[in-house]
Amino acid sequence: MTAEAVRVRPAWWRRIPVHLVVAGVAVIWAVPLFGLVISAFRPSWAVLSSGWWESFALPGDYTLENYRRVLDRDGMALSLFNSLAVVVPATVLTVALGAAAAYALAGMRFRLRSAVLLTIVALIIVPIQITLVPLLRVFNALDLTGSFLGIWLVHLGFGLPFAVYLLHNFFAAIPRELFEAAEMDGASRGQIFFSIVLPVARPALAALAIFDFVWTWNDLLVALIFLGGFRDVAPMTVAVSQLVASRGDGWEILTSAAVLSVLVPMAVFVALQRHFVRGLLAGVSKG
Amino acid sequence: MIADRIVLTLAATAVVVVAGWAYLRLGDRALAALPHGAYRRLVPWLFAGPAVAMVLLALAFPAVVTVGWSFVGADGGFAGFANYAQTLSDEVTRIALRNTVLWVMLLPSLAVLAGLAIAVLAERVRYGALVKAALFLPIAISAVAAGVIWSFMYDYQPSGAAQTATLNAVVTALGGEPVAWIVDAATNNYALIGATLWTQAGFAMVIFDAALRSVPDELLEAARLDGASEWTAFRHVTLPFLMPTVVVVATTMTVTALKAFDIVYVMTNGNYGTDVLSTVMYRALFTAKDNGLAGAVATILMLTVVPIMVFNVRQFRRESGAA
């Protein structure tokens, strides 16, 4: 409040540049989304002959037909559920294994502890491309390509370094007295983990779960390589990218497919954005 | 089929939760039967073991194998640096390297600029929350959907035809000639980087937004009382406080730029001179089916992130002290 009082409000014309920058950025960022959503509700003849902004002049011109056509499309509705079948178990696996490991690394002393921790921090930014050639060969040999089990394991392996790092930062901030008091009372590590660490860390677990959910849902490369060749297990990102690559469809189909693919992660993200932001901030700075 | 997927989703989730719980509970109890010293030595591995094993199997070992493979020729024999020589002498790889450099120069600096500008300036206008929401939403959008959105924004009709895509409609309304943003080599790489920036700037803004709250108000007030302009106060008080955050955002975006794949794959598939290292590697792996060559490209990609990796590890050691 005092800062506001001290600050002399500059003359209105000196604030024009600020408004220009802020409003300009807002428009540049909002317009593509508007164009997408509006075009997805326009009939194909309209999309072909006029821009989405012109549809405001023709009220009542909107239709749900595009969505019906996309969902009727071979496997598109199934892809939506394939995405869920890939993402939910992979996320739960990553959070579970990550939480157990982060507890060991933050709450226990053991040999190789710092070596493990530093390796994990180093691996966070490893480009997954470096692992694809050997992984694909092993997966082909084990007949895991095109299977949900296979892609859960790949997402688990790729997601764990960030998960362990993020949760370790949270767990390390839990007062050690909490653990020590429980140990004095004769609680085992397992009891401490389930009855103290997990309940206390619930916000952190939620943050990680949302982060991982959106990340895995939006992944294309891993799905393309480990599920790509198999249409009946392809998730949304692969299905939409195939729709784009086939080049046979108008913008009204591509945009409504894109809207469908965005719906779930967007809903999760908007509903739980506070957790997401917390996870993001903990991921980049010490929690 | 859809019912199958729902059942699979629920069943797999239940199995993971129950199996995870049983593993830790029973493992803990079994180890507790051992002498206390052995329990304390072994129990960390009960917890960390599965994650460590997964990371080794899915990341560390394959990475080492890939580097090894990059020295193996198409005939299966040791080829020295032949794969590297072959890929680096290839025009396609050289273009990809040039483009990757362009990505690494532009994406981090633009993301820092946009994120910082909006984090700072949104506080000063009444519609600040709206602007933040506009930047924030695209974070949840996949690169595939962003590829569709921006392909649609950049779409091109020949001069004279109705421009149904936003950008060319603006250009022609201003009296210009329509531009084939994605095909034209003068614009297409910038177009792809711009589309990526659209999805990433929100990350930068959120991080700067949080960091701005750590700038002490008293210092800013003192500067203003001394007659400093808003710009001077920002330059000499706020910015120094934000420097560590700038570094964090810039390194994160650098890694994003180096790994860029999805948006290029969807929007151009590397055509028209827009290849990046990831798309070249993908083609070497799937079209050419040349593991040695793909390994060499992946190793080059890996080498580019090593400096950031070393930096992150040193940063972590300093911050955590103990490790």
Automatic annotation (TrEMBL), chain A:
<dbReference type="GO" id="GO:0055085">
    <property type="term" value="P:transmembrane transport"/>
</dbReference>
<feature type="transmembrane region" description="Helical">
    <location>
        <begin position="192"/>
        <end position="214"/>
    </location>
</feature>
<comment type="similarity">
    <text>Belongs to the binding-protein-dependent transport system permease family.</text>
</comment>
<feature type="transmembrane region" description="Helical">
    <location>
        <begin position="80"/>
        <end position="103"/>
    </location>
</feature>
<dbReference type="Pfam" id="PF00528">
    <property type="entry name" value="BPD_transp_1"/>
</dbReference>
<keyword id="KW-1133">Transmembrane helix</keyword>
<keyword id="KW-0812">Transmembrane</keyword>
<dbReference type="InterPro" id="IPR000515">
    <property type="entry name" value="MetI-like"/>
</dbReference>
<feature type="transmembrane region" description="Helical">
    <location>
        <begin position="20"/>
        <end position="41"/>
    </location>
</feature>
<feature type="transmembrane region" description="Helical">
    <location>
        <begin position="148"/>
        <end position="171"/>
    </location>
</feature>
<protein>
    <submittedName>
        <fullName>Carbohydrate ABC transporter permease</fullName>
    </submittedName>
</protein>
<dbReference type="InterPro" id="IPR035906">
    <property type="entry name" value="MetI-like_sf"/>
</dbReference>
<keyword id="KW-0472">Membrane</keyword>
<dbReference type="GO" id="GO:0005886">
    <property type="term" value="C:plasma membrane"/>
</dbReference>
<feature type="transmembrane region" description="Helical">
    <location>
        <begin position="115"/>
        <end position="136"/>
    </location>
</feature>
<feature type="domain" description="ABC transmembrane type-1">
    <location>
        <begin position="80"/>
        <end position="272"/>
    </location>
</feature>
<keyword id="KW-0813">Transport</keyword>
<keyword id="KW-1003">Cell membrane</keyword>
<feature type="transmembrane region" description="Helical">
    <location>
        <begin position="253"/>
        <end position="272"/>
    </location>
</feature>
Automatic annotation (TrEMBL), chain B:
<dbReference type="InterPro" id="IPR035906">
    <property type="entry name" value="MetI-like_sf"/>
</dbReference>
<feature type="transmembrane region" description="Helical">
    <location>
        <begin position="233"/>
        <end position="258"/>
    </location>
</feature>
<feature type="transmembrane region" description="Helical">
    <location>
        <begin position="190"/>
        <end position="212"/>
    </location>
</feature>
<dbReference type="InterPro" id="IPR050809">
    <property type="entry name" value="UgpAE/MalFG_permease"/>
</dbReference>
<feature type="transmembrane region" description="Helical">
    <location>
        <begin position="101"/>
        <end position="122"/>
    </location>
</feature>
<dbReference type="GO" id="GO:0005886">
    <property type="term" value="C:plasma membrane"/>
</dbReference>
<feature type="transmembrane region" description="Helical">
    <location>
        <begin position="6"/>
        <end position="24"/>
    </location>
</feature>
<keyword id="KW-0813">Transport</keyword>
<keyword id="KW-0472">Membrane</keyword>
<dbReference type="InterPro" id="IPR000515">
    <property type="entry name" value="MetI-like"/>
</dbReference>
<dbReference type="GO" id="GO:0055085">
    <property type="term" value="P:transmembrane transport"/>
</dbReference>
<feature type="transmembrane region" description="Helical">
    <location>
        <begin position="293"/>
        <end position="313"/>
    </location>
</feature>
<feature type="transmembrane region" description="Helical">
    <location>
        <begin position="134"/>
        <end position="153"/>
    </location>
</feature>
<keyword id="KW-1003">Cell membrane</keyword>
<protein>
    <submittedName>
        <fullName>Sugar ABC transporter permease</fullName>
    </submittedName>
</protein>
<dbReference type="Pfam" id="PF00528">
    <property type="entry name" value="BPD_transp_1"/>
</dbReference>
<feature type="transmembrane region" description="Helical">
    <location>
        <begin position="45"/>
        <end position="72"/>
    </location>
</feature>
<keyword id="KW-0812">Transmembrane</keyword>
<feature type="domain" description="ABC transmembrane type-1">
    <location>
        <begin position="97"/>
        <end position="312"/>
    </location>
</feature>
<comment type="similarity">
    <text>Belongs to the binding-protein-dependent transport system permease family.</text>
</comment>
<keyword id="KW-1133">Transmembrane helix</keyword>
